[in-house]
Amino acid sequence: MGVSKLDVFYRRLLLTKLFIRGWGRPEDLKRLFEFRKIIGNREKCQNMVSRDYPVYIDKIEEETDCKILEGHFVSPMAHYVPDLMPIESVIARFQFIVPKEWNSKYRPVCIHLAGTGDHYYWRRRTLMARPMIKEACMASLLLENPYYGCRKPKDQVRSSLKNVSDLFVMGGALVLESAALLHWLEREGYGPLGMTGISMGGHMASLAVTNWPKPLPLIPCLSWSTASGVFTTGVLSKSINWRELEKQYYTQTVYEEEIVHMLEYCGTDSFKMGRDFVKHFPNSVDNLTNFDLASRTLNLDISESLCMKSAQCHNTDKSSISATSEGLVLQGVSKLESLSQTLSTKESRDGSSMNHSDQFSEEKSKEEKRRSTLQKESLMFMKGVMDECTHVANFSVPVDPSLIIVVQAKEDAYIPRTGVRSLQEIWPGCEIRYLEGGHISAYLFKQGLFRQAIYDAFERFLHKYAY
């Protein structure tokens, strides 16, 4: 299956660069990897967000078909890694769109997490929340992402995260913030509860549900099992400031000497499967190529001589064959010595006559090889850190995978599925629905199918766990 041309074209319209400041401080990455080990285990993180975690409503607006509540709370992430979150992101903010009247004894609520570039609430409210009230009398809670909207750092340009580590801070914060909101909704008597999101929002919703101790409908749209492909092989990888990442990886040995050893994910699509090969691949190929070329050069005349002599002595007796063989060996040695002397003389002559242009070409070639090796190592390191913090196989399996409906675009150029473990393999029992087209066309024109998947997942929950 090919990739969408619209996806490729749309990416070219984005002029801003991601991760302009690099990987983030090494000590921050170390702390985030340790933190991931905790939130990646449902049992370990059960008490990180209390059932009575305080959530505050700031404003209530009455609309013709719904009520819109706006609220806030302190991100639980700030309590555990307080100095990693920018000050603007510490206060989590949300909008809650509720029907004026419910049409059954249930009061279903779906939490929507924001996709890349989805600042504030307008997009999710218009395309998802309001239609869901009309179609299914279902409420929607829209959580503002850290680094987005009113939680965006002042020195950040639009949606362009400055550091790779910022994405991991965002993910960890959304996992804990989602838990706080789920607890609050339960206290307020809402249910059943579920989570969804489109693109990055779908992936963040997936990570959040892995930590919830109860069955929960999950509908990740246009997302997959890991973000590593997004930033290494997807079209969004073209927006990354690779020069800065490569420079930091090369100049700060802590990334290769310490941080690499903290990466624990080791699935079949792990970067560890190919890291050593990639690291040594260029030198190995060069050595093999040179060796093969030299071997063929040295053996060429000897092989021809042996073949001709063998043909001439085909009908001779054993003693003749023995003598001839001995002669051939001597001839071969003689040829080899002669060729060796010729090569030595040529090398000496070439060495003495090598001009500055040849030296420059050789240095340029070496520099290109070093550059290529550094690019490959930086790319594999990106895959490693992304898998460590975003691969769903590094987190607990949701309590009931049968309540998961994944909606994917067949020609998605933003979310590559090639070379990545399938969600059906990681979450046995989940359903995957494929749409025609790519990422952008699905986002623009298939919102109705996203909503239908939400309704189906909630209906499935009621069928299994009606209360």
TrEMBL record:
InterPro entries: AB_hydrolase_fold, ABHD18
Gene3D superfamilies referenced in this protein's UniProt entry, alphabetically: alpha/beta hydrolase (3.40.50.1820)
Compositionally biased intervals (Polar residues): 341-358
UniProt biased composition (Basic and acidic residues): 359-371
Annotated region (Disordered), positions in chain: 341-373
UniProt cross-references to PANTHER family, sorted A to Z: PROTEIN ABHD18 (PTHR13617:SF14)
Name of the molecule in the record: Abhydrolase domain containing 18
Species: Sarcophilus harrisii (Tasmanian devil)
